[in-house]
Amino acid sequence: MAPAIDLVADIGESFGAWTMGDDGALLEVLSSANIACGFHAGDPRTMDRTVRECAARGIGIGAHPSFPDLVGFGRRAMDLTAEEVRTDVLYQLGALHAFAVAHGTAVTHLAPHGRLGNLVATRPDYAAAVVAAVRAFDPDLIVLAQDGELADHARAQGIRVGIVGIVDRAYRADGTLVPRSEPGAVIHDTAELVRRAVRLVTEGVLDAVDGTPLSISADTLLLHGDNADAVTHARAIRTALTEAGVRIAPLAGLLADRAGRGSAACPA
After folding, report:
1. Residue 111's closest CA among 68, 56, 154, 48?
2. How far apart are CA 263 and CA 175, in angstroms?
3. Rounded distance, CA 90 to CA 134, Å?
4. Do the Cβ atoms of 210 and 178 come closer than 8 Å?
5. What are phi and psi of 34, to 5 degrees?
6. N or C terminus of the chain: which is more exposed, having fewer CB within 10 Å?
7. DSSP assignment letter at 122
8. What pTM does this model have?
9. What are phi and psi of 217, to 5 degrees?
10. Which tens digits make up the pLDDT trace of 202-254?
11. DSSP calls for 134-179
12. How are beta strands 107-110 and 247-248 bridged, if at all?
């Protein structure tokens, strides 16, 4: 069977009169979306508009919760307790859910943003807090994560996990991302991004900055939307994947298909 992948980007990250990215153009490429929920970006009008557009296009809707850090765009470390993380995530899920219901659709996944997204891969207390919020809200949600604490905690609690491949970010040999504060953390060359994307989806491999080949069984590719070339990159990656015989599908349906094939292959 031909390989399949979900294409997701962080969108809805404008705030008031300030605009981030070209969401309209990105929505022509994506199969799923991580939508800002107001803590690092996004406001009620932006959330409403973004959810409406996703619903109209059949794009999977995901919550993109963050530390409460509008000024720092959610990319600064904050000394929150695990209980604060749990309740902040639950609050943001509820906000996005309201707009999803209003537009006759539903939130299908959750992907922590920025510094929170980095820390849940390595901090068991934060990972457990996010999973507790998901279980309380809807245990059928899919948690998007890199391999690490969040993925492990979610699986242990019976929560479905979608492993994220991030082709425009450099990886260390231990599988963590190179911090944005370091040179070379973000990859901008379109040809290199296309090469990495096709290799990741068809071979399950990405090279770390030191050349170490990392084995990553990605369910979704994250295409960052917060840079000037985001749309160009996204279109080039989708075109290359399609030409390589890869099927693009929303995450929820893709994981359901894979689970069904697994059940068929392993009857009770």
Report:
1. 154
2. 30
3. 7
4. no
5. -95, 115
6. C
7. T
8. 0.92
9. -95, 80
10. 999 999 999 999 999 999 999 876 666 889 999 999 999 999 999 999 898 88
11. HHHH-TTPEEEE-TTHHHHHHHHTT-EEEEEE-TTB-B-TTSPBPP
12. unpaired
